[in-house]
Amino acid sequence: MSETAILAAGCFWGVEETLRKTPGVLSTEVGYIGGAVENPDYRLVCSSTTGHAEAVRLQFDPKRLSYEALLELFFELHDPTQVNRQGPDVGTQYRSAIFPTTEDQSQTAAAVIAALADSGKFAKPIATVIEPEAPFYPAEDYHQKYIAKKRGEL
């Protein structure tokens, strides 16, 4: 049986590309979550007025990839100390956030963040937030598997 995870770590294109290729990940979909507008589009989300984050919703096989291992990869994919940005991308839509889909995921996320904060790996505090369950709106088709399409892999 698969589980669903929703993660936001900056621009969803690169995050999706890495997660899609991760053993144990069964499927990926990029979209928008955590905002106040129903059915937002990319232009609206990029206005930083909706409160949505660019995120990846994925199905994974917990027998092959634990949620904790997935979160460890998530924290390797981006700088979790940056607030509302990743690299050159700036805005609330690029925040670092975890959207647990179960209470177990929420507890695991809190434990992983606490362990990472205590590890001393980062000079600055962890900015990643755990946000409540919210509607996920799939992004436009051209955003789905964007990097793979640009490389001619799909």
Q: What do we call the CATH homologous superfamily? A: Peptide methionine sulphoxide reductase MsrA
CATH overall fold name:
Peptide Methionine Sulfoxide Reductase, Chain A
The tally of domains stands at 1
Low-confidence stretches: none
Strand order of the largest sheet: 7-6-1-3-2-8
Keywords, please?
single chain; 154 residues; alpha+beta; two-stranded antiparallel ribbon; 5 helices; 8 strands; 30% helix; globular
Textual characterization of the structure:
Strand 4 (85-86) and strand 5 (89-90) form a beta hairpin. The protein has a single domain, classed as Peptide Methionine Sulfoxide Reductase, Chain A, CATH 3.30.1060.10. It contains five helices and eight strands, in the order E-H-E-H-E-H-E-E-E-H-E-E-H. It has 154 residues and is an alpha+beta fold. The strands form two sheets. A six-stranded mixed sheet has the order 7-6-1-3-2-8, covered by helices on one side. The two termini are 27 Å apart.
Please specify the SSE layout and strand pairing.
Elements: E1 3-9, H1 12-20, E2 25-33, H2 42-45, E3 53-60, H3 67-77, E4 85-86, E5 89-90, E6 96-98, H4 103-119, E7 129-130, E8 136-138, H5 146-150
Parallel strand pairs: 6-7
Antiparallel strand pairs: 1-3, 1-6, 2-3, 2-8, 4-5
Helix pairs in contact: 3-4
Summary of the model, kept short:
This protein has 154 residues and is an alpha+beta fold. The protein has helices at residues 12-20, 42-45, 67-77, 103-119, 146-150; strands at 3-9, 25-33, 53-60, 85-86, 89-90, 96-98, 129-130, 136-138. It has a 6-stranded mixed sheet, with helices on one face.
